[in-house]
Structures
1.
Amino acid sequence: MWTKENLQDLIRDKLGDYLFIVVSNREPYEHVFHRGKIVCRRSAGGLVTALDPVMQACHGLWIAAASADADHKVTDASGKVMVPEENPSYTLKRIWLTKEEEEQYYYGFSNEALWPLCHMVFQRPEFRQEDWDCYAQVNRKFANAILEEIGDRKAFIWIQDYHLCLLPKYLKEMAPNQLILAQFWHIPWPNYEAFRICPQRREILDGLLANDLLGFHIRYHCHNFLDVIDRELESKIDREKFSVTRAEHETLIRPYPISIDFQGIDQDVNSPPVVNAHKNLIDEFDLAGKKVILGIDRMDYTKGIPERILAIDQMLEQHPELKEKVVFLQKGVLSRLHLAQYKDLNDRVQASVEQVNWKHSTTKWKPIILVKRHMTQEEIIALYRLCDVCVVSSLHDGMNLVAKEFIASRHDEDGCLVLSHFTGSARELPDAVLINPYDRVEFGNGIYKALTMNDAERKKRMVKMRAAISSNNIFRWAAKVISELLKFEFKEQVVAL
Ligand code: F6P
């Protein structure tokens, strides 16, 4: 079993004089003004859930774009601050983007072009030349900031996600001999038919192939990537070795199913702050004596939230005896609200909740509670721990770590997971109740099945799911990537995993 300590040993013993740097658009912690004070909060989303425990173990440097109103108040002259606040263990270096850069690089090319391009949810991507130009400009800004930090030292640079496709190429051009580069793609990689509509597809591929190692969640995404390369670029593809060679540079392509700090969450479940939060949440939302169905998501059109509300509606139509006995609590973290598609989604979800509540409510009960307020990590774990059923219904999702966090939180080996077939995590979790979120009847029946499953069956499934996630935890995931990277510099070092 890989632990935080094993990962620390691996890094200390094997990295030699290489700096260890993680780079992403999303910063792991943001500083916000709240009631006249500066508060440090962990950012939402799978990338931070996965990589923050790794960085807390590794004590490296994380470079990311600033995103909150008080970020500049706590950093030093070079944009640095130690995080997390309560246990400073690694350095966050913030990059400052202008409003225009945020608009065109983050909202524009990253989230109106690449995000819908990679997720098969029938949302049309928007390609604007000015967004692409700005995307390139911001990637260069990241490259300059990284090289300024490194000087002439050697470094392993671990790039995250789809916002930084050109960064590896810029880095290798500017510092060809001192860097080992890996990139992890946190979202699905589409098939060729979908990808070929992107006007900048060759530049994107060329940028990514400057990496020494490129990781995806699942093998299927690796195959899609190799197919796209095959059709678009002159290169040599080695399907045995899973690598691409272009202009004499080889990039390894690998599946690494991302995970969570299972043991950390498992330990926190019975900590006093979680136990307190558990009690308070039951009071706040009047949950005592009711079966609780839970959804926790960033409010994103890929997550299948409107479909989930329709499935609850369907189940209550079919099983009116559940009225006053169940409640569906949806925690939605507001996200990318500046974009019209996200604002529309919020309005649609709100309207749909009101409609379903109107249809089924009684004088003393309504079936759906929509919560948008910020919740602490302790409150989130308490929600996982108190619910009877957790629903993850993404229309398409690279992995989905809500499913894995829910399982880690069930130290009591109770609770049932309803999970979309179209998530990466469905491949590791066949013991969930698997559903097609597009099929309202199947989805409604799936939630009903989970709610009414007998105790022995529920426990049997949870025990198996916990065993799967406990061994493939985030430290093993990080160790696999780092061990592969080590081989580039230290050929004799092969770490058994
Ligand atoms: O998982 C994909 C991803 O873009 C991550 O990079 C990020 O953690 C999450 O979605 C949230 O997105 P954003 O950074 O745009 O809030």
2.
Amino acid sequence: MRWTRAFIPTLKEDPADAEVVSHRLMVRAGLLRQVARGIYSYLPLCQRVILKIDEIVRQELERIGAIELMLPILHPAELWRETGRWDLYGPLMMRLADRHDRQYALGPTHEEVVTDLVRHEVRSYRQLPLSLYQIQTKFRDEIRPRFGVMRGREFTMKDAYSFHADEVSLDATYGEFREAYSRIFTRCGLAFRDVEASAGEIGGDVNHEFMVLVDTGESVVFSCPSCGYAASSGRAEAARVAHEPPAGRDAKPLEEVATPGKTTVEEVSELLARDPSEFVKTLLFQMDGRTVAVLVRGDREIDEEKLGRALAVDRVEMAGSERVREVTGADVGFAGPHGLPKDVRVVADYSLAGRGNLVAGANRTGFHVTGLEIGRDVEPEDWIDAVRLVGGDPCPRCGTALDETRGIEVGHIFKLGTKYSEPMGATFLDEDGTQKPFLMGCYGLGITRVVAAAIEQNHDENGIVWPTAIAPYEVEIIPLNMDSARVVEAAERIYEECRAEGLEALLDDRADRAGSKFADADLVGIPWRIVVGDRGLESGMVEVARRSARKDMARFSPEEAVQHVRANVIRERRGGASEPKSG
Ligand code: ATP
Ligand code: MG
């Protein structure tokens, strides 16, 4: 491809609205343009990268026996009503009506549609297992679309769904997908790890997220340097300790103290000269029509995802200030566990385990209590693990201090069991002659998010440094001076030879200054470059450099240059560790 024909609208300036480097570079390097919030046009360079990722995904999924199909984007509401998700999905789902006022969703995910297909077409255990996938546009009306294609409202996902007669088969396929994902991300040149995760809207128990580790990632990952435990923040478990306070301790009496106008742990801690870790925070939630008081240590936070799971509710919502006043008889900021009405369910987080002589709200405006003992002054109905971990917390498996890192979730795989097949009546005739609901797995991979994640991990101060396996072109030929017939002729010949050798070549045939061509070459990040100039040609030489290590430039004859690049590119196309990481 010739640059003058390739439609690569590079920019000299950073776009004002781009917060992360991948977004900035995708706009500047002419890969991306925004149409509306979270909605983008992928320009030709970007499309080439997407097609390469698609191809890697297809190869690795075909290898484990998954079959590609294409499901519709437009989903009738009735299907989503069958599983209750028409309501549950809430404002994240884009909805519209047709001319007859029938309701539809623009698919945010495809469990309902694929289960509907399979329940009509697959009758017998003999047809199982079955793994189907598509590469398809998804729509989610994200609250905060941001970071470019990292969190779009319209984006491309590879989603796969597997159907099984029994757990053994589901486990086997789940394991195969997990390995296929590892191969896909490795081939895309990403440093990643898979972690235990929480299921969100999709549901099911066992699930793993694939995290690309970068500081700008929106997800938080806790990992153990010693035993290998790794989990995303909404899943990471606190290490358990006995919740009884140590025996033979001198408990103090419960006493009220005046704390006028002091409503936060920090303020009361300062006033009473007690450490925040000696406080009980009492958080009131409204769940399934009941008020739940969640007790957590004063210096720690509750993770709402963990809380929902611990209490087996779909959605947790803080109680409004009206409800807080009703329940505690006090203003917000003075809630405590002691003496709450009987119909309030009290649960305690393990962060309070083993603690006594605590400070808490007194359920009286302007007062707190000291000397609070859990077990004596309040008996929690349950002990739960709902605390948000912080780096340095002990590993739940081995006790070593956990590392806290940030990551970009690029893939998420789930064992769904019968969560969808049961409500949708999707059954098959099993070997024993009975009808059973399919066991299912589902496997998502954010294609367009992978593009952004790859740039987050592979760039330098001048631009993108594409891993060869997903680069839009493999080699860029740069004639330094388009006025020189000799240079142009040599560059054209090298370009043709590259193409004849099966290399994906880009010839920068613009009449621009050499400096601005180099700047754009750095920005766009093609892994190999062949530079053709008058001075080199005098001794029959051209320069070859790789984008990731421009200083290690080497001189070759034009023929050797092509062969040198070809040999390297062939090795790098399969992906993996051949490209050094930067960024
Ligand atoms: P997140 O937690 O980032 O919102 P999710 O858990 O809701 O994502 P899944 O339902 O697990 O997402 O979707 C599978 C994959 O699709 C994700 O791992 C991610 O790579 C990609 N993805 C999800 N939402 C978006 C989005 N808004 N823009 C781009 N890619 C997305
Ligand atoms: Mg997810």
